[in-house]
Specification:
Number of helices: 21
Distance between the termini: 57 Å
Largest sheet: none
Number of strands: 0
Length: about 375
């Protein structure tokens, strides 16, 4: 059992027995991150309360708590803690205050702290400007602020690669794909080993439906991302999807299969895409085997498009002559997603949509008559 697991079990035991157990600051921060990652808000709040009881005046604890509250969008609570910190000259405190003020829509107040850091010529100013540029880019409705801020920052640090990257992100988010592509190309010329920029360029080519160029950029990204396993995984997944969109179904199938070797592999995210590719190859048996484990996941909607999964699984059942499974899944889908499933399945043109037409009897498509009647009755009852 690893250190984190031991720490979590120790916390659970203290909660069950009511025994007072000491946790140092690092332990509290580890528990905060654990429960935050697992979205366990109840235990997260208990850890925060415990941390306050044990480490009220500790700077690292105060920073960790403030960062957590900001991530939970509890800006007022974070602001109170940050303003109680004695060491007001700490740049980590300044950065969190800026983030907090932006979250409270107090942009001008946040910028006063930025101007102070620039005036003081802090060694971390350049890094902080990059972080703020990223926040502004990620905040809806703040495009103009992001553009002005990034350009003003580049006037101070014209060679900063990360600021140039943020400007590229700005154009991408703005929808100016041509300018974003031009900037990405200039950036990879400046640094040919910047895997994240190659990946960004691939994404921009996908926006233009240029999958060949996207795949080429992803290959460069893969060659430059040897030390970043998470990025390698994202690159491989993106390449598999692009190959499928480009009609290279066999190569895409191989790429999807290769993803299983990665520690980051999550079948809930990957299997619907891999199954869709198999269906394009008319390998409905493999597609069925990929989709079938997903139907029993309680919170499937949080991970993927449940309607698409159920619809594709129904189609696979039809094509592989799993009559009872098809009817059972259709009844479940009609109960939970009555309008969405009818619309989704209509794209496959498996069923007649005319009241006076008899069920199809196509040699190329095998499906039970009961399923057709089920589809028709719900379709016309909802029209």
């Amino acid at each position: 059992m690893d250190k984190l697991s031991n720490l979590v079990n120790k916390f659970y035991a203290s909660q069950m027995t009511g025994e007072s157990i000491y946790f140092d600051v690092d332990d509290i921060i580890s528990l905060i991150n654990y429960f935050l990652d697992n979205k366990d808000i109840g235990n997260l709040n208990k850890v925060i309360e415990l941390g306050f009881a044990l480490h009220t005046d500790d700077l690292d604890f105060s920073l960790a708590i403030s960062e957590t509250l900001i991530e939970m969008n509890q800006y007022d609570d974070a602001w109170k803690i940050l303003n109680e910190i004695v060491d007001e000259d700490d740049e980590d405190v300044d950065l969190l205050k800026i983030n907090c003020l932006f979250g409270m829509d107090r942009y001008d107040d946040g910028m006063k702290i930025v101007y102070k850091l620039i005036h003081e010529q802090s060694p971390q100013t350049e890094e902080i400007l990059v972080q703020i540029a990223q926040w502004l880019n990620e905040t809806d409705g703040w495009h103009e602020r992001a553009f002005d801020f990034i350009n003003n920052s580049l006037a101070l640090y014209p060679d900063n690669f990360q600021l140039k990257t943020q400007l590229c992100f700005y154009y991408e988010k703005l929808g100016d794909t041509k300018k974003a592509i031009d900037m990405s190309k200039a950036l990879v010329e400046e640094n040919p080993f910047a895997a994240e920029i190659w990946y960004l360029l691939a994404r921009q080519h996908v926006t233009c439906l240029n999958y060949d160029k996207a795949i080429e950029a992803l290959d460069f990204a893969a060659a430059s991302a040897q030390d970043d396993l998470n990025l390698q995984y994202e690159i491989q997944l993106s390449k598999a999807w692009c190959l499928s969109q480009n009609g290279s179904y066999i190569k895409a199938d191989e790429c999807f299969d290769d993803l299983k070797s990665y520690q980051e592999f999550d079948f809930v995210d990957v299997n619907p895409l891999a199954a869709k590719n198999c269906m394009a190859m008319e390998d409905y048996e493999k597609a069925y085997n990929l989709l079938e484990p997903l139907k029993d996941i309680d919170d499937l909607d949080k991970h993927t498009d449940s309607v698409a999964v159920l619809g594709d699984l129904i189609v696979c059942c039809i094509e592989t002559e799993r009559r009872d499974d098809a009817i059972r899944l259709m009844l479940y889908a009609l109960k939970n997603y009555p309008h969405e499933i009818l619309e989704y399945l209509s794209n496959y043109k498996l069923f007649s949509t005319q009241k006076d037409e008899a069920p199809q009897d196509d040699d190329d498509i095998v499906f039970p008559e009961e399923l057709t009647r089920l589809y028709l009755s719900h379709n016309f009852n909802n029209n």
